[in-house]
Amino acid sequence: MNHLEIAKRIARDAGAMIKSRLGTSYVTDEKSSSFDLVTEIDRASELMIRQRIEEQYPEHTFLGEEESFGSGERFVGRLEQASAEPFLWIVDPIDGTSNFVHNMPGFTVSIALACRGELTAGVIYDPCSDEMYWAAKGQGAFVNGKRISVSNVDRLEQTLLGTGFPTDERARAVGVECLGELSGKCRSIRSLGSAALQLAYVASGKLGAYWEYGLNVWDTAAGVILIQEAGGTVTDTAGRPFDLFTKNIVASNGFVHQPMLACMQPTIHA
Ligand code: IPD
Ligand code: CA
Ligand code: CA
């Protein structure tokens, strides 16, 4: 079985475990703030994914949100090292923990593989809709076996946008400024509570574009390769190409990318 098939199988099993605990009691902790939640299910999901990947590929490198590479400079240093590895698995064990905690659908498992810093495969599984999104470099993007592509809408006023409210307060404030800027210019704006799900929705043409400040590589990696393979464009908010260090993201069908960039705030272009 190849990397992609293994990732799909693991994401499906982790998703089923998470969904089986929806609405049950579990321990919830706040990380950096009351916006930033983690549950014992996030940790259990990451452990399961990590163990399954290590069983298959003991020599590969693993980067999961919860095991934490540390923060700040320590994180950047470790990511620099990891991004030089021939096989780096990048995992968000539950993307959309707030939805999960509030007993709502809209949480996903996100697994990506990068080879020396280049994304080669990505899987996003939504256990509530049973939608499995995947992409592999040069092979296209799919949902449940059906090829997907980005939308062909080329006017912002006909575009449905997605965004998120990041845990970092500064990033959240800048994102809200963009929301103010964009709200009169597009059809409408959704915030679905999972960055990975919204990136998958851009790849499948449901959303025309998505932006968010202050994300991490585990939120974005799988979604980015999906969009690239579905014909879309992903950059940072200053228009530079996406890489594993990108925190402020604009992802689109390509046609509305420039108008989106024009509405981004220059304040935290890292
Ligand atoms: C969060 C979700 C949310 C986004 C936040 C992320 P988590 O991830 O993707 O949609 O707005 O910025 O931190 O904490 O649920 O894995
Ligand atoms: Ca996340
Ligand atoms: Ca998470």
From TrEMBL:
<feature type="binding site">
    <location>
        <position position="219"/>
    </location>
    <ligand>
        <name>Mg(2+)</name>
    </ligand>
</feature>
<dbReference type="GO" id="GO:0008934">
    <property type="term" value="F:inositol monophosphate 1-phosphatase activity"/>
</dbReference>
<dbReference type="GO" id="GO:0046872">
    <property type="term" value="F:metal ion binding"/>
</dbReference>
<dbReference type="GO" id="GO:0006020">
    <property type="term" value="P:inositol metabolic process"/>
</dbReference>
<comment type="similarity">
    <text>Belongs to the inositol monophosphatase superfamily.</text>
</comment>
<dbReference type="InterPro" id="IPR000760">
    <property type="entry name" value="Inositol_monophosphatase-like"/>
</dbReference>
<feature type="binding site">
    <location>
        <position position="65"/>
    </location>
    <ligand>
        <name>Mg(2+)</name>
    </ligand>
</feature>
<feature type="binding site">
    <location>
        <position position="92"/>
    </location>
    <ligand>
        <name>Mg(2+)</name>
    </ligand>
</feature>
<dbReference type="GO" id="GO:0046854">
    <property type="term" value="P:phosphatidylinositol phosphate biosynthetic process"/>
</dbReference>
<dbReference type="GO" id="GO:0007165">
    <property type="term" value="P:signal transduction"/>
</dbReference>
<keyword id="KW-0479">Metal-binding</keyword>
<dbReference type="InterPro" id="IPR020583">
    <property type="entry name" value="Inositol_monoP_metal-BS"/>
</dbReference>
<dbReference type="InterPro" id="IPR020550">
    <property type="entry name" value="Inositol_monophosphatase_CS"/>
</dbReference>
<feature type="binding site">
    <location>
        <position position="94"/>
    </location>
    <ligand>
        <name>Mg(2+)</name>
    </ligand>
</feature>
<keyword id="KW-0378">Hydrolase</keyword>
<feature type="binding site">
    <location>
        <position position="95"/>
    </location>
    <ligand>
        <name>Mg(2+)</name>
    </ligand>
</feature>
<dbReference type="InterPro" id="IPR033942">
    <property type="entry name" value="IMPase"/>
</dbReference>
<protein>
    <recommendedName>
        <fullName>Inositol-1-monophosphatase</fullName>
        <ecNumber>3.1.3.25</ecNumber>
    </recommendedName>
</protein>
<dbReference type="Pfam" id="PF00459">
    <property type="entry name" value="Inositol_P"/>
</dbReference>
<keyword id="KW-0460">Magnesium</keyword>
